[in-house]
Automatic annotation (TrEMBL):
It comes from Saccharothrix coeruleofusca. Its EC number is 4.3.1.3. Belongs to the PAL/histidase family. GO terms for cellular component: cytoplasm. This is Histidine ammonia-lyase. Its main location: cytoplasm.
């Protein structure tokens, strides 16, 4: 079924590339031998505590505010299944397949550390479900980002026991029992602590952070390109991107974006055409001149997010947790604050990079600021409106992105009868970041098609080889200048081009 190399899951941390390969690429997973040994050893400790007279939270007690209740041995399997059923209380639209696959992989990795106390068969069943392409139906709402992503992970755990709904490898909606049976996976009958171990993690937040980081690397590269195209189309100067200027303010992201924009504009006839002594323009508008500063600050923010993601990928999140000496200790590592803050943080540069792109687009459409381009880049201004309303679309999205940049992590609503009296809202921060990333892609798509049209209208002057190559790639799916056409499909085609990485 799979052609990719399997991703090995064990006590060692996963990489962001591993998460991407499984979540988006459909790569299979395999359990490392060290994982099997660690899981088996930890389970022996849980079995010992389960047989003891002294209650242990999560093993022989209730949960949350009901932790004071001691549960007799003959009711503990029912306790774990009841936990999973009751906590699978999500609502709203289905969460995307790639997010659920990331969530399952990351929970599997924590189980494989040997710090959760689950049985080896449970870990193997989760790996088999992932490899069979079975994706539990997870709903949008239900996680407060504390005590882990409880409702989303409970939906996964429920599917593992053969209950609830899933989508199979062909994206058909099926009862979990039917899909597991077709894949030859035996449903899990939960034992002591297993229900809790399956649901008490930050895996959804982390999965969405890792995927957003991957998307933003590509989008910031595209932003450098579309900004350079706009500078060129607006007869701007490339001198402000010189390395010696950016060395005076040594932020690494800024230097990287400036270098890229300088390289993209190298060899441009359009830029060279107004470089002589007759040029009376002293300096370009901020949206052109300061693009490396804005894009670079976004790059540096992503770099910080990477450090948080990589630390979390090395974590084993559960409560209680099984320590190497056999102790089972309660803790607060499931609190999503470290992830919530950075998920919120990333939404700010996403909004700002989109905002500056929209300003560059608007300049190309304004006859008073575009230095000789036709109004709205229209073929017959007055009869044709050109890209006028495409900029409206950008403006609407940028306005939405500003709202999405309002942090979720400063909010907290107490839950579980005040036992869980401060929560992170990290899942909400992750969900809005995904919407923000999609919005940035659309805004850049509009700048791309607008700048490409403007460059075509600068003929016979030729653009730089790099920008000319970008225009040529776009022209495979979006035609050049002409009378008004249906623009929505062209914006969508440009988005697809950006998403594919072809640009």
């Amino acid at each position: 079924m799979h052609m990719q190399q399997p991703v090995q899951v064990g006590p060692k941390p996963l990489t962001r590339a591993d998460v991407h390969a499984v979540a988006r690429g459909g790569a299979p997973v395999e359990l490392a031998d060290a994982a099997r040994e660690a899981v088996t050893a930890a389970r022996a400790h849980v079995d010992r505590l389960a047989a003891a007279a002294k209650p242990t939270y999560g093993v022989s007690t209730g949960f949350g505010a009901l932790a004071v209740r001691h549960i007799p041995p003959d009711r503990r399997a029912a306790l774990q299944q009841a936990l999973v059923r009751s906590h699978a209380a999500g609502a709203g639209p289905e969460v995307e397949r790639e997010v659920v696959r990331a969530l399952v992989l990351l929970r599997l990795r924590t189980l494989a550390t040997g710090h959760t106390g689950v049985r080896l068969g449970t870990v193997e069943a989760m790996a088999a479900m992932l490899n069979a392409g079975i994706t539990p139906v997870v709903r949008e709402f239900g996680s407060l980002g504390c005590s882990g992503d409880l409702a989303p992970l409970s939906a996964v755990a429920l599917a593992l026991t053969g209950e609830g709904l899933v989508r199979d490898a062909d994206d058909r909606l099926l009862p979990a029992a039917e899909a597991l049976r077709a894949a030859g996976v035996e449903p899990v009958r939960l034992a002591e602590k297993e229900g809790l171990a399956l649901i008490n993690g930050t895996d959804g937040m982390l999965g969405m952070l890792v995927l957003a980081i991957s998307d933003l690397h590509r989008l910031l590269d595209v932003a450098d390109l579309t900004a350079a195209m706009s500078v060129e189309a607006l007869l701007g100067t490339d001198r402000v991107f010189a390395a010696e200027l950016h060395a005076l303010r040594p932020h690494p992201g800024q230097g990287r974006s400036a270098q890229r924009m300088a390289e993209i504009l190298a060899g441009s006839e359009i830029v060279a055409s107004h470089r002589g002594p007759d040029c009376d323009r002293v300096q370009d508008a901020y949206s052109l001149r300061c693009s490396p500063q804005v894009h670079g600050a976004a790059r540096d923010t992503v770099a910080y997010a990477e450090t948080v993601a990589d630390r979390e990928l090395a974590a084993a999140i559960d409560n209680p947790v099984v320590l190497p000496d056999g102790r089972v200790e309660s803790n607060g590592n499931f609190h999503g604050a470290p992830l919530a803050y950075v998920l919120d943080f990333l939404a700010i540069p996403v909004a700002d990079v989109a905002s500056i792109a929209e300003r560059r687009t608007d300049r190309m459409l304004d006859v008073n600021r575009s230095h000789g381009l036709p109004p709205f880049l229209a073929d017959d201004p007055g009869v044709d409106s050109g890209h006028m309303i495409a900029q409206y679309t950008q403006a609407a999205i940028v306005s939405e992105l500003k709202r999405l940049a309002v942090p979720a992590s400063v909010d907290s609503i107490p839950s579980s009868a005040m036992q869980e009296d401060h929560v992170s809202m990290g899942w909400s921060a992750a969900r809005k970041l995904r919407k923000a990333v999609d919005g940035l892609r659309t805004v850049l798509a509009v700048e791309l098609i607008t700048a490409a049209r403007a460059l075509d209208l600068r003929a016979p002057l030729k653009p730089a080889p790099a920008t000319a190559a970008a225009v040529a790639k776009l022209r495979e799916v979006v035609p050049g200048p002409g009378p008004d056409r249906h623009l929505a499909p062209e914006i969508a085609a440009a988005e697809d081009l950006i998403r594919s990485g072809a640009l």
